[in-house]
Design brief:
The protein is α/β, with parallel strands linked by helices. The chain folds into three domains: 97 residues, Orthogonal Bundle (Helix Hairpins); 128 residues, Rossmann fold (3-Layer(aba) Sandwich), CATH 3.40.50; 70 residues, Regulator of K+ conductance, C-terminal domain (Alpha-Beta Plaits). It contains eleven helices and ten strands. A six-stranded parallel beta sheet has the order 3-2-1-4-5-6. A four-stranded antiparallel beta sheet has the order 7-10-8-9. Helix 2 crosses helix 3 and helix 2 runs antiparallel to helix 4. The longest helix has 37 residues. It is elongated.
Length: 343
């Protein structure tokens, strides 16, 4: 038997045992058998098979009426089954319902554990995290992707059925609960709840923990101080964004080149206008020079090629030379209103 099936069956068995479902099922089975035997005894010409069927439909209050007791003993049995059946099934239904309600409350309060694969993990909740979540949900590729938030707060901060919450610090235990070993992307935000001097140190430590648990996860890290970028690089972060550096550079450029911030805002937002996309090199353009690809992408796909990323290489070559040859395994970073269809 498949290991995953065995594990699932074991989880179901544990659940039934923990919630005393076996006891309730045993009482239900006992009542059905008792009433079937009693009806067979009191009702002449009634087979045990028919009595068993009558017991089930009477206990579940379906009451088809195809079989009805006529003797006094049979009617007494029927009365007992109806009264006890309503009570026992009520307890059974309430037990199952309470389990699901309790599970939902635990999830909203960040007490659950998850087994998703290829999901996204957000570390720390800040106003910037809220914006990131909104942008992810505005993208069709991530509209229903499971996203797990790990943050030290009381309840889940937003109503999103595909956002799952784990309460507490971003540590190894909570990362395990988020199944970081199977995550595709981990976004580590700077913790606004602690002193600024300690934020980057915590971010670097979190990055180290994530990379130790899952080297293949793509880690995006937010830092406050550019001086700490080298520490994050040593921790093997895939992308490092220095918040203060980015905002100050953008403001300074906007002061010199009026209107430039509007262009950047448009490219960073998925709500309107053009977006940034990374796409594979179209089959008909592989092996051609950059200038030819640039011209063809603009002419046939209304897209502007900004950069090229070599396969397996984190380095991105922005604005390559006109004679730069682009291979089939490379990726293009483009500006377009919509993601071009794959070739």
């Amino acid at each position: 038997m498949n290991k995953s099936i065995k594990k699932k069956l074991a989880q179901i068995f544990t659940f039934l045992k923990r919630e005393n479902i076996f006891r309730i099922l045993f009482v239900i089975a006992l009542l059905i058998i008792f009433s079937a035997v009693g009806l067979t005894y009191f009702e002449e010409g009634r087979s045990f098979k028919e009595a068993l069927w009558w017991s089930v439909v009477t206990m579940t209050t379906v009451g088809y009426g195809d079989i009805s007791p006529v003797s006094d003993g049979g009617r007494i049995i029927g009365t007992i089954v109806m009264i006890m059946g309503i009570g026992i099934l009520g307890v059974f239904t309430a037990t199952i319902a309470s389990v699901f309600v309790e599970r939902k409350l635990k999830e909203d309060r960040g007490m659950g554990s998850y087994t998703f694969t290829n999901h996204i993990i957000l570390c720390e909740w800040t106003p910037r995290t809220r914006e990131i979540l909104a942008e992810l949900r505005n993208d069709d590729r991530c509209a229903i992707t499971p996203i797990i938030l790990i943050a030290d707060m009381e309840v889940k901060p937003v109503d999103d059925e595909n956002l799952y919450f784990i309460q507490g610090d971003v540590n190894e235990e909570n990362l395990k609960r988020a199944n970081v070993e199977k995550a595709s992307t981990v976004v580590i935000m700077s913790d606004d709840n602690i002193d600024e001097s300690a934020r980057d140190a915590k971010t670097v430590l979190t990055t180290l923990t994530v990379e130790c648990m899952n080297e293949s996860a793509y880690t995006i890290v937010e830092l406050l101080d550019e001086k700490n970028v080298r520490h994050c690089r040593r921790a093997k972060a895939d992308e490092i964004i220095v918040g203060s550096e980015f905002s100050t550079k953008l403001i300074s450029r906007a002061a010199l080149e009026h209107g430039i911030s509007k262009v950047i805002s448009e490219l960073l937002s998925s709500k309107y206008g053009n977006d940034l996309y990374k796409i594979p090199v179209p089959n008909d353009l592989a092996g051609k020079k950059f200038i030819d690809i640039f011209t063809e992408m603009k002419r046939t796909r209304q897209s502007i090629v900004l950069a090229v990323q070599r396969k397996g290489d984190a380095e991105v070559i922005s604005n390559p030379a006109i004679d730069y040859v682009v291979n089939q395994d490379d990726a293009l970073i483009i500006i377009a209103t919509n993601r071009p269809e794959n070739n």
